[in-house]
Design brief:
By secondary structure, the protein is mostly helical. It is 55% helix and 4% strand.
Length: 298
Amino acid sequence: MQKTLANLTISFINSLISEKAYSQNTVKAYSTDLNEFFAFLNDNEKKNIKIEAIEPADIRRYLTFLYNKKNKKSSIARKLYSLRSFFSFLIRYNIIDTNPIEHILTPKQKRTIPKYLTVDDMFALLNSIEEETEKDIRDKAIFETFYSTGIRISELVGLNVNDIDDGNSILLIRGKGNKERIVPIGKTALKKILKYRKSLKKKKDKEALFLNKYGERITARSVSRILKDILKKCGLPYSISPHSLRHSFATHMLEAGANLRIIQEILGHKSLSTTQKYTHTNIDALMKVYDKAHPRSK
């Protein structure tokens, strides 16, 4: 393996594809982050620098550069994560002896409460989709599936017909890194899917579950556009995205008493801390009950 930055970057990116099965968008983000860092080194009298010559001071200067450019903390954290992954790769293959980013701290990020719909708003959205045309029937099936399973939009558009086990009311989901998991699906959503498949007249793609008007697999962009149209019709906030429906699913499950670890498994989160952001509503509800019921709360 040649040690030029360009060749090492190519080898690293190839490992993300072959070993981790990362999506095209994720791989592109890693590549962009690395190239930005190398461009920074090149612009700061570090032209043609060898990989083993990169020091913690170079990364700290890069961090200062990002802060001065008013990059968001979330963006800086992502860029640092890309660099950490890259240097870990180099350590693993004995290309470098010391990791220059090992002791660099990631900026603390403010935890934001994810946008979600109330149960009433979620029902209003679903009930607004009439089932008069094949498109309507498909859209109803899509958003019932979203709310019933909490899957990501990439996972929904990637669903195949054979991923449905209607006898056991479960779906086979291929998540991040091509990892598979089993997700339960409610009877209402399952009925809508089966109704949609029976209504189909054009099926160019025999494998995909949800199709566009040309009979081909529907795209994430199309689903987002359809949701915007439904939100407009319902008078609900335009800021609600397909990912907000995932947040709605998790929030409503937690409010109804579902175990946090079960929700983690259904959502396909690697870490429980990722799922814990949905506890915000439970805490709010808990405090309201406490303030109302406890004799010494005032």
